[in-house]
Known about the structure:
- With 501 residues, this protein is of the alpha/beta class.
- Helices cover 36% and strands 14% of the residues.
- It is built from 18 helices and 16 strands.
- It has helices at 16-22, 42-56, 63-69, 75-80, 82-94, 105-116, 135-144, 146-150, 158-168, 191-200, 269-273, 290-298, 312-326, 347-353, 371-387, 454-460, 473-481, 486-500; strands at 5-10, 25-26, 29-30, 32-39, 95-97, 123-126, 172-178, 185-186, 189-190, 208-211, 228-230, 241-249, 282-283, 333-338, 360-365, 368-369.
- Strands 1, 4, 5, 6, 7, 10, 11 and 12 form an eight-stranded mixed β-sheet that branches. Strands 2-3 form a two-stranded antiparallel sheet.
- Helix 1 (16-22) packs across helix 18 (486-500) and helix 2 (42-56) crosses helix 5.
Amino acid sequence: MQTSIPVIDLFAGPGGLGEGFASLKKSGKNVFQLKISIEKDPSAHQTLLLRALYRTFGKKVPDSYYEYITGRITKQEFQSEKMISAHFAEASNEARNATLGVTSSNEIDKWIKEGIKGQTKWVLIGGPPCQAYSLVGRSKMMNSNLEKYESDSRHLLYKEYLRIIKEHAPPVFIMENVKGILSSKLNGELIFKKIKDDLSNPKKGLSYEIRSLTLDTQSSELSPSDFIIESEKFGIPQARHRVILFGIRKDFCSKAHLTLMPCEEKVTVSDVLSNLPRIRSKLSKEKDSFNDWCEALESTASLMKGWNSTIKKNLTSEMHRNARIATEISSSGTSFVKTKLVEIQNKSLNEWLIDPRLDGIVQHQARSHMRSDIQRYFFLANYAKLIGRSPKISELPSKLMPAHKNAEFADAPFQDRFRVQIGIQPSTTIVSHISKDGHYYIHPDPSQARSLSVREAARLQTFPDNYFFEGNKTSQYAQIGNAVPPLLANQIAKIVADFLS
């Protein structure tokens, strides 16, 4: 008797999509089991490996796991512990560090066959890297070098996904990508149409119906935009819009159309961040101290001199109030902040995110910012709180304007270059650019005057608090930005499980 359905995860990143499938339970038992997760980035692979190890213990995760992710023991001490080393081979068998399209196809096929073990019901998931399809990335590449853009190998990575479908004929597959794939062209042809046509008929004698996860509509009647899933409609505290294809092998097809159920209320930024410890930003390129930081905030109001606005008086008052509150925030966070977290009001989110065994929060450290950026963040967060939206660059006082010759013009590019996340709304999309700077991700609480921490970004992506990201901080941010929200993936997993059953 098959106890769980095998899952093969390609282009796995840190494992958001796989986590959603692996965590789905029915009658207390796992519906799916991740058999193979393939990722080329070494740091993301280490994250996958650690999570695979965590899963091997089921409900009996050893204390040493928590001692490691909270920094009480080193990685070497953790891996050398007898109980951990005994499970390490199983985790390594799942999480593979390999590059699809480069690593031998025979090797990849061998892993998949060993993972499936001849079972008739299994699932292929994953999304080819999307930088070449993203609207911003595409614009930059096409403006600089059209020939380079059209020859970018990332356009064709879906062909490796397609090759695996041809070779192994999964009963169902889930393929994810950015919205930009719908309008992206290669050699004058719409890429999405070609991908959908290829996936529908991978080879002679093998065909798939490509369904939407949000509409109960026949495949032939779907338009490209019908494959977009707007995450905020499904309980994710983030307006992340992605294309997700649900492929069903024709001999598995049924008339039943299963779709995601929208939530009645949207989950907001404050819903998932407000119970985290308040931390201050750190000053970079100068001496950092708590007093210097407080002074930077208090002096921001003076930079509004000569700025004429109807809300200037109220804004000045709000800034002074939050500058006083900031004098109570001396910590900039650490790799582990020991604290008892207040429960999140949304019960299901609370159960999904919070792990009582942690007794605190991991990877919650503020970034360092230049004084000018801290003051800009402080001003903008206060302003946003008053007007209920993130201000544009052109609305800044001249003394807070970025040093860019076009910044003051209303039609300047990237008018939302500095973006405050509004507490009473879902966040904007967390993307890999968060690894470069925090300008798009300013914390809604003005008194903290900073961008989001790694853990806050992970919370907005719905990674559980005990999900630990390996690598340096830049890599951690990039991994989170490239991931599928695990809680959304969990809902997709339920659709797939119900279909297969």
